[in-house]
Amino acid sequence: VRATSEAEPLRAYAPSMGQIFLRRFQLVTQFRSALETGQVSIHYQPKVALPSRQVVGAEALVRWKHPEFGRVDPDEFVPAVEATGLVDVLTDFVMDKALDRVRRWIDRGLRMSIAVNLSVRTLADEEFPDRVAAALLKHAVPPELLTFELTESGVMADPERALPVLRRLHTMGVVLAVDDFGTGYSSLAYLRQLPVDEVKIDKSFVLGMGTDLGDMAVVRSIVELGHSLSLTVVAEGVEDDAARDQLVSMGCDVAQGYLISRPLSEERFEAWLRARTVQVRGARDETVLTL
Ligand code: C2E
Ligand code: MG
Ligand code: MG
Ligand code: MG
């Protein structure tokens, strides 16, 4: 429908093409050792059901604390890494950490799912479903507690190769979500052909909903479309009560955003969870989470 517009941060000076190229080159060549030396970590952002506010899971978002550049955003280094063969290493790293987390939650009686973002390259890798099966087995996590988020453009880049991979993942019982929905160019009819279970409304529409009637209309129609295709509808970028209330009135199923929590380090996310856990008397398996 339209492209996401992220505001550019103010800069004292604009870096030259040479500087941009050099930095990108450094990020790509240093990525593997960054993984090995603990510079790369996963942050977790909760997803809550509407209107109950029960915590249903979290999205795993990668973070890189670079010794020279400081914090490097995934929007910068993921595309750079993606252009090389290294993105598999990233995906496997995130999946392994994420499933280890889910296993720990299960051991405490918490049934929460984890969402991992997939890049275009991974969708074209016919061996990926085997690695997913091995990772689920290794951590003894049931497939329905793992969600993969893929973008429309990721699927549309090479549907011939992506579709068989998606079908295999879906057959295994893994949950598939279309991320940033509404920003791509694929037709809504195409969504029907994809083996997906969930749509995530792009945050640009959710953020604009309070001030822009057009954004409001887009959000409403994605909720309706999603439900008419029996999909779970998730809104990202929920920053205030007004947006949450609007989404509840539209019947949106799940909310994610700064209103609920920013993405948190593993330790801080666990503390956040503990503060919201209500143990149901005598039923270890029925731990209830509320905001
Ligand atoms: P995404 O998957 O659409 O993730 C949502 C982004 O929105 C995250 O940015 C998150 O921090 C941000 N966000 C969450 N709630 C709010 C809110 O209420 N307001 C606003 N303004 N923003 C919010 P982040 O962490 O910088 O990640 C950016 C993108 O990088 C992700 O977009 C995803 O496409 C990609 N990414 C992150 N981790 C991975 C990964 O492990 N693998 C791959 N392939 N891509 C990743
Ligand atoms: Mg995502
Ligand atoms: Mg998104
Ligand atoms: Mg995004």
Automatic annotation (TrEMBL):
<protein>
    <submittedName>
        <fullName>Diguanylate cyclase/phosphodiesterase</fullName>
    </submittedName>
</protein>
<feature type="domain" description="EAL">
    <location>
        <begin position="24"/>
        <end position="277"/>
    </location>
</feature>
